[in-house]
Amino acid sequence: MNKRKLILAGIGIFLAGVLAGGAGMGLFAKLRLAPLTRMDKVGPSGFFMERMDSALKLSPGQREAIRPIIEDVLAKVREVREPCMPAEQKALSEGAVRIREHLDPEQQEKFTRFIEKAMERRKRLLGH
């Protein structure tokens, strides 16, 4: 009888750990990964406006006045970054080549898709 209780207690502890781990991963995804997905949907200025509105509880008039300012600032940031983009792209490409040398063929294939997705997100974010 004691052995049975011990086994049931062990199973209970294991299941509690599984539930806690699942809840932790769900919370992590909600707090850390969801914002990136949201930015893909609404764009950088929309994403920034949503975050600002959530933090500051902006009125409709404030949102209307602030949105063009954010869009203007983001456009200026893109403009300032423009001259650096070729050098940045070169550095990223060289780094990818160096990383690829340490990967097996299957990992290289996955890495290629990983880089393509990262470049797509970068292009959407920076407009390049």
In short:
With 128 residues, the chain is mostly helical.
List keywords for this structure.
128 residues, mainly alpha, 0% strand
Topology of helices and strands:
Elements: H1 2-56, H2 60-81, H3 85-100, H4 105-126
**Arithmetic mean pLDDT:** 83
Multimerization state: single chain
In percent, how much strand structure appears in the residues?
A: under 5%
**What value does the Rg take, in angstroms?**
23 Å
> Helix-strand pattern, N to C?
HHHH
Question: Ranges with pLDDT <50 over ≥5 residues?
Answer: none
Give a count of the beta strands, DSSP E runs of length 2 or more: 0
N-to-C CA distance: 69 Å
How many helices? The count is 4
Measured as a percent range, the helix fraction is over 70%
The general outline is: flat
The class by helix and strand makeup works out as mainly alpha
The largest sheet is: none
